[in-house]
UniProtKB/TrEMBL annotation, chain A:
It comes from the Eukaryota. The keyword Secreted does not apply. This is Mob1/phocein family protein. Zn(2+) binds at C92, C97, H169, H174. It comes from Caenorhabditis nigoni. Pfam families: Mob1_phocein. SMART domains: Mob1_phocein. Transmembrane segments: none annotated. InterPro entries: MOB_kinase_act_fam (IPR005301), MOB_kinase_act_sf (IPR036703). Keywords: Metal-binding, Zinc.
From TrEMBL, chain B:
Residues 1-23, 95-122, 178-204, 251-314 are annotated as: Disordered. Residues 1-12, 111-122 have a biased composition (Polar residues). It comes from the Eukaryota. The gene is Cni-cash-1. It comes from Caenorhabditis nigoni. This is Striatin N-terminal domain-containing protein. One of its GO terms (cellular component) is cytoplasm. Residues 44-71 form a coiled coil. CDD domains: WD40 (cd00200).
Length: 221, 681
C-alpha cells in the first residue's frame, strides 16, 4: 500500500493492501535504494514493471558487483519457481511421474539426500527447491548478501542446473501447465537468458526451446 | 636455673633482717616478675593478633573496593570501545552517503585523531595480541574488530545510535540513585584503610573479590551479547575474548600491586586513580578521552549525573556520567534484585538464540507451537516453514552449509505471498492465508521428520476459497474449531473447516472503503472478535450474530486516519491492544471502548504485537527494524533489540511469544526469522 505520510511514499505492503496494490509504488532509482537489500528490491521492481522484458530485468545497474547480481537473481528464480512447484503439486503425482525426467535421455537423481536418490518428479522438485533455498541461505557459502566470495559463486551453477530440470520436466510432461505458467511469468525465458548470459550452464543442457535461436535450432534438426 | 646456687645465702640474709615481713623471697619476687612478664607477653601477642586481624580486614575492604574499581574500569573501557566503534561507523557511513568524502571534522577531538592510527596497525598486531596474556588491550582490540565487522555487516548506524542511548539509559537506570550513602560508606572505609596491609591477605581478598566482580561482569556481558546479538557467530568469538580478558585480569600482577599501594583519601582522587589504572591498557585514542573526562569530572559531578541527552556530539559525556557512578557500581546487583522484588518478575533480558535462514523473501507471519519448541513462519516466497528449535544440529544433507538449523517441513499451498497463519490450540492444524485469497488448512507433520521425505498430498487437507482479495489475518476459535479471516476484499469471514459448506458468515466493513487488517478473539469473551481496520477504526464483533458489540474510541489525539496494523487481546483481562501505522500502541477497555493509554512506541509504524501468556509483557515490532519488550503494567520499555534489516520501507513484520516456553521470535523483510531466549541461558 502506498500510504502517503508527510508527503513521503512508504514502500511497504502493510496489512490491508489489496492484491492490485501489491508492490505498487512509484519506482525508485537504484541509486536511491539505500538498504542492504537493494539488489533484490531493484530486481523485483523491474520484474514488477514488465515481467516479459527479460533484457531489462537482467541488465545490472552501473558498477554492480556481478556475483551479488547473479546470486540475487537466482534467489528470485527460486522464489518464483515455487509457483511452478505449486502447479505441479496438483497433477504431477508419483503414479504418472515416477522419475525425474525431461527427455528420455536422462533420469535425474535427487541431490538433497546423502546418497543421490531416484525421487519421483514432484519430490525432486520440492527437494531441489528446498535444498536451493537452504544453500542460498547457508552461513557457510552465503553469510552476506552484500559481499559474496568467489568460491561461493561457483555454487550458483549447480543450483541453476538442478532447478532448470524443473522447467524441463514441466515442459515435456506437463506442457499445458508449463505454458500457463510461462505466459504469466516468462520465467523460463528469463532463466534461459540468465544462465546463457552468465555462462552458468552448458548450451546443450538447455533443452527447453524457449528462446528464438533455440527454436530455430530445433526446427533445423 | 642458675640462681639456685646463690639462693641459700640470700635466703639467710633476708630471714635475719626482715623476719616480720611476709615471705618476700628472692625466688618469689623473681617468680612474680617472671609471671608478670609472661602475662605482658601474652597480652602483647594478643594485641598483635588483633592488629593483624584488623589489618586483614582493612586489606579485605581495600581489596573489595579495588575489585569494584576494576569492574568499573572494565565498564568504562567497554563503553569507550562501543563509542569508538560507533564513531568509526558514523564516519564510514558519512563517507558512504557523501560519495567517499572524508567526514567534516565533527567533534574530532584528540581521541578521534589518534584512533585511526591505532586502527591502521590493528590487523597486523592482531595475532600477536591474541597470544599475549599480559596485554589486556589485545582482546580489547580483537573484540573491537569483531564489533566493527559486525557493524559493517548490518550497515546502518541510526539505529545503533538509538540502541546505544537506550542501552546507556538502561545501564544507568540499573545503577542505584543512592549518591550520598554510598560515598559516606566509602569514606568510612578509607579511614580504616590508612594503615599498611599485609600482602598475603590482600591477595586472597582481592582474588575472592575480583571473581565476585566478574560474576557481575558476566551478567553485563550477556546483556551485551543480546544487544548486538544479531550475528551470533561474531559474538562467540567475542565472548571468548572476554573470557580471556577476565583471565588476564586475574593473572595481572600490575592490577594487584596497584590495589595494595592505594592510599587515596577522597572521592576525587579515587576517580582519577581509576583513570590512571585505565591508562595502562587502553589504546591512546580512548586514553586521551578519559583524561579529558577526568578533568571535566569534578565540576560536572553534581549537575549532570543523569544527563538525558546522550547525543553523539559530546563523547565525554558518557564518561562523565559513568565516572559519577564511579563508586556506586558495587550496588548493581542489589539494585537489580530490588527492582525485581518490586514486581515479582524474573529479570528479563533476551538474547538471540538462533537466526533462521531459509526463506527467500519477506516473512510476514510467525507463530510458535503451543507446547513444543517449534516455530512456523510464512513468507512472501509462497512457503510456510516448520522449524524444530531443538533439532539436532547435524549435517544430514550435503546440500546444507554445515551445522545450521534447517526447516523440518516446507508447506506449499499458496500462489504468491503467504501473509498470515494461525495454529489450532493443539498445534495439529495450521491455517494460512495468502495474497491469492485462499486459506490453506494443513495437517502439521511430525516436527522430527526428514525434510526431504516424499510428498504427502494429505498434508494440505483443505483449501477454503471465497475471499476475492488478499487475506491479511486469520484467527482460530479454540472452543468450536472455527476460523475467522480478514481480507482486503473488505470482508471478515467465519469458516468451519472440515464442514461440507465451510463458509458460515461474511461480515462486511463497517464503512465503505474500510479494510480489516487484523483479527483476534477476546480472551475473556470467546464469542467476541476483535477487528482492526484501515482508516483508524477498530471494533468488537459478536461472531454468533455478526453484529458490532463495541466500537473503540480512539480519542482526540489521532492525526489523520492511520491504518491499525495489529490488534491483540490481553490473555486474561478485558483489554485490547492495537499497534498502528502512526507508531503508536494503544490500550483499550473492552467494556467501555474507551482508550486507556496510548504511547508513541517506535520510530516507524508498529507492525506487530504479541503479549506473553501471563499478560505481563508486551512485545512490539516495527518497521524501524527493532523489536521492543514492554512492561505492560508500567508501560515502560524493558529492552530494545535491533532485529531486522529493511527491504524497501519494511523491516520487522511479525513478533511472537512462545505460549509455554521462554522463547520469543521476530521475523522481518530481510527474509530472516530470529528466536531469542531470556536471561542467562
Amino acid at each position: 500500500m502506498t500510504a502517503v505520510a508527510e508527503n513521503r511514499v512508504v514502500r511497504r505492503n502493510g496489512p490491508g493492501t489489496k492484491r492490485a496494490d501489491w508492490n505498487c509504488w512509484p519506482p525508485l532509482a537504484f541509486e536511491e535504494m539505500d538498504s542492504a537489500l537493494n539488489i533484490q528490491q531493484y530486481i523485483q521492481q523491474t520484474i514488477k514493471a514488465n515481467p516479459s522484458d527479460v533484457e531489462t530485468i537482467l541488465t545490472p545497474p552501473l558498477d554492480q558487483d556481478e556475483g551479488v547480481w547473479k546470486y540475487e537473481h537466482l534467489r528470485q528464480f527460486c522464489i518464483e519457481l515455487n509457483g511452478l512447484a505449486l502447479l505441479l503439486q496438483r497433477e504431477c503425482v508419483p503414479e504418472t511421474c515416477q522419475q525425474m525426467t525431461a527427455t528420455e535421455q536422462w533420469i535425474f537423481l535427487c541431490a538433497a539426500h546423502k546418497n543421490p536418490n531416484e525421487c519421483p518428479a514432484i519430490d525432486y522438485t520440492r527437494h531441489t527447491l528446498d535444498g536451493a533455498a537452504t544453500l542460498l541461505n547457508s552461513n557457510k557459502y552465503f553469510p552476506s548478501r552484500v559481499n559474496i566470495k568467489e568460491i561461493s559463486i561457483s555454487k550458483l551453477g549447480s543450483v541453476a542446473r538442478r532447478v532448470y530440470r524443473i522447467f524441463s520436466h514441466a515442459f515435456f510432461h506437463h506442457r499445458k501447465l508449463f505454458d500457463e505458467f510461462e505466459n504469466e511469468t516468462h520465467l523460463c525465458k528469463r532463466f534461459t537468458t540468465y544462465v546463457s548470459k552468465y555462462n552458468l550452464m552448458q548450451q546443450e543442457h538447455l533443452i527447453v526451446p524457449i528462446l528464438p535461436n533455440q527454436q530455430q535450432q530445433q526446427t533445423a534438426q | 636455673m642458675e640462681d639456685s646456687g646463690q639462693l641459700p645465702n640470700a635466703q639467710n640474709e633476708k630471714t635475719e633482717e626482715e623476719t616480720n615481713r611476709s615471705q618476700y623471697t628472692m625466688s618469689g619476687i623473681l617468680h612474680f616478675i617472671q609471671h608478670e612478664w609472661t602475662k605482658n607477653e601474652l597480652d602483647r601477642t594478643r594485641w598483635e593478633a588483633e592488629r593483624a586481624e584488623m589489618q586483614a580486614r582493612i586489606a579485605f575492604l581495600q581489596g573489595e573496593r579495588k575489585g569494584q574499581e576494576n569492574l568499573k574500569q572494565d565498564l568504562v573501557r567497554r563503553i569507550k570501545m562501543l563509542e569508538f566503534c560507533l564513531k568509526q561507523e558514523r564516519a564510514k557511513n558519512y563517507r558512504l552517503t557523501h560519495n567517499g568524502e572524508e567526514p567534516p571534522s565533527f567533534d574530532e577531538s584528540a581521541n578521534e585523531n589518534s584512533a585511526p592510527s591505532d586502527n591502521s596497525h590493528l590487523s597486523a598486531d592482531l595475532d600477536a595480541y591474541i597470544n599475549d596474556a599480559g596485554e589486556a588491550g589485545g582482546s580489547f582490540r580483537q573484540g573491537r574488530l569483531l564489533l566493527k565487522r559486525y557493524l559493517e555487516e548490518i550497515g546502518y548506524s541510526e539505529h545503533i545510535m538509538d540502541v546505544r542511548s537506550f542501552r546507556v539509559k538502561n545501564l544507568l537506570g540499573l545503577l542505584p540513585q543512592t549518591d550520598l550513602p554510598s560515598s559516606e560508606r566509602l569514606n568510612g572505609r578509607k579511614e580504616k584503610s590508612d594503615s599498611d596491609s599485609e600482602d598475603g591477605h590482600d591477595d586472597a581478598a582481592l582474588d575472592a573479590d575480583a571473581s565476585k566482580a566478574f560474576e557481575e561482569f558476566d551478567f553485563l556481558n550477556s546483556m551485551d551479547v543480546k544487544e548486538k546479538g544479531s550475528d551470533a557467530d561474531d559474538w562467540t568469538g567475542k565472548g571468548a575474548s572476554y573470557e580471556k580478558l577476565i583471565k588476564q585480569y586475574k593473572d595481572d600482577p600490575k592490577v594487584k600491586r596497584r590495589s595494595r599501594t592505594s592510599t587515596e583519601e577522597s572521592d576525587e582522587k579515587t576517580s582519577s586513580e581509576v583513570h590512571k589504572n585505565l591508562e595502562t591498557d587502553v589504546p591512546p585514542g580512548i586514553k586521551s578521552a578519559i583524561d579529558a573526562s577526568a578533568q571535566q569530572e569534578l565540576p560536572t559531578r553534581r549537575q549532570g549525573r543523569r544527563s538525558a541527552n546522550f547525543g553523539y556530539g559530546n563523547g565525554n559525556e558518557l564518561d562523565v556520567a559513568l565516572g559519577m557512578q564511579d563508586n556506586e557500581n558495587m550496588d548493581i546487583k542489589d539494585e537489580f534484585k530490588d527492582d525485581d522484588d518490586d514486581t515479582n518478575l524474573p529479570p528479563v533480558k533476551w538474547n538471540i538464540k538462533v537466526t533462521l535462514r531459509s526463506h527467500l523473501d519477506t516473512i510476514h507471519a510467525m507463530q510458535f507451537h503451543p507446547v513444543e519448541p517449534v516455530l512456523f513462519t510464512a513468507s512472501e516466497d509462497g512457503l510456510i516453514k516448520l522449524w524444530n528449535l531443538d533439532q539436532k544440529k547435524e549435517d544430514k544433507h550435503n546440500s546444507g552449509g554445515g551445522t545450521e538449523l534447517e526447516p523440518v517441513y516446507t508447506f506449499r499451498g499458496h500462489k504468491g505471498a503467504v501473509l498470515c497463519l494461525v495454529l489450532s490450540p493443539t498445534g495439529d492444524h495450521l491455517y494460512t492465508g495468502g495474497i491469492d485469497g485462499n486459506i490453506c488448512c494443513f495437517n502439521v507433520p511430525s516436527s522430527n521428520g526428514d525434510p526431504f521425505d516424499s510428498y504427502d498430498p494429505r498434508v494440505l487437507s483443505e483449501t477454503l476459497t471465497g475471499h476475492t482479495d488478499a487475506i491479511w489475518s486469520v484467527a482460530y476459535h479454540s472452543s468450536n474449531s472455527r476460523l475467522v479471516s480478514a481480507s482486503s476484499d473488505s470482508t471478515i469471514r467465519l469458516w468451519e473447516p472440515g464442514n461440507g459448506e465451510p463458509l458460515i458468515r461474511t461480515i462486511g466493513a463497517p464503512q465503505p472503503g474500510m479494510i480489516p487488517t487484523s483479527v483476534d478473539f477476546v480472551s475473556t469473551e470467546t464469542s467476541h472478535l476483535l477487528a482492526a481496520y484501515t482508516q483508524c477504526y477498530a471494533q468488537i464483533i459478536d461472531i454468533d450474530t455478526g453484529s458490532t458489540v463495541m466500537v473503540f474510541d480512539f480519542g482526540p489525539k489521532v492525526v489523520g486516519t492511520p491504518t491499525m496494523n495489529k490488534i491483540v487481546s490481553h490473555p486474561t483481562m478485558p483489554l485490547t491492544l492495537i499497534g498502528g501505522e502512526d507508531r503508536t500502541i494503544r490500550y483499550f477497555d473492552n467494556t467501555t471502548g474507551a482508550i486507556l493509554s496510548e504511547s508513541l512506541a517506535h520510530v516507524e509504524g508498529v507492525s506487530s504485537l504479541a503479549i506473553d501468556p501471563n499478560g505481563l509483557y508486551l512485545l512490539s515490532g516495527s518497521h524501524d527494524g527493532s523489536i521492543r519488550m514492554w512492561n505492560m503494567e508500567r508501560k515502560t520499555c524493558l529492552q530494545e533489540i535491533s532485529a531486522h534489516r529493511k527491504k524497501n520501507d519494511a523491516a520487522v513484520t511479525s513478533v511472537a511469544f512462545h505460549p509455554s516456553r521462554s522463547l520469543i521470535g521476530s521475523a522481518g523483510a530481510d527474509s530472516l526469522a530470529k528466536v531469542y531466549v531470556s536471561g542467562s541461558n
